[in-house]
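Ops channel
N.P.: pipeline sanity check, posting one input/output pair.
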């Protein structure tokens, strides 16, 4: 699978070449900050970004993932989401142009803490 390099987490980052399929990732939210993402035609949008312990790339949180995190944490206050263990996975969805695209989602159930090596 090929993808352009990105400084934010993309579905391609969850691709497992050995399985030739997307893998799930269990991660712990370290912090959530407000940021800006540049989309098509250079359009810039503000959105929250979740940073994960031990990972370099943050995940831009769309409305769907924010709703899931609000339900998991019991609060819409993103400052209270730190420390949550969540599972990321990839789905097929339709974008605003009607094209099928891959998107990262958060499972609606808290993950168990991953054992540290």
């Amino acid at each position: 699978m090929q993808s352009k390099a990105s400084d934010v987490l993309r579905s391609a980052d969850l691709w497992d070449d050995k399985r030739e399929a997307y893998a799930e990732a269990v991660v712990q939210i370290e912090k959530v900050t407000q940021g800006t993402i540049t989309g098509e035609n250079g359009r810039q949008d503000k959105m929250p970004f979740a940073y994960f312990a031990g990972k370099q790339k943050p995940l831009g949180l769309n409305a769907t993932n924010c709703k899931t995190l609000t339900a998991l944490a019991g609060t819409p206050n993103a400052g209270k989401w730190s420390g949550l263990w969540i599972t990321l996975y990839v789905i097929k969805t339709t974008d605003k142009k009607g094209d099928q695209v891959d998107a990262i989602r958060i499972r609606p159930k808290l993950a168990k803490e991953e054992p540290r090596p």
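N.P.: looks fine end to end. Residues 63-73 form the longest helix (11 residues).
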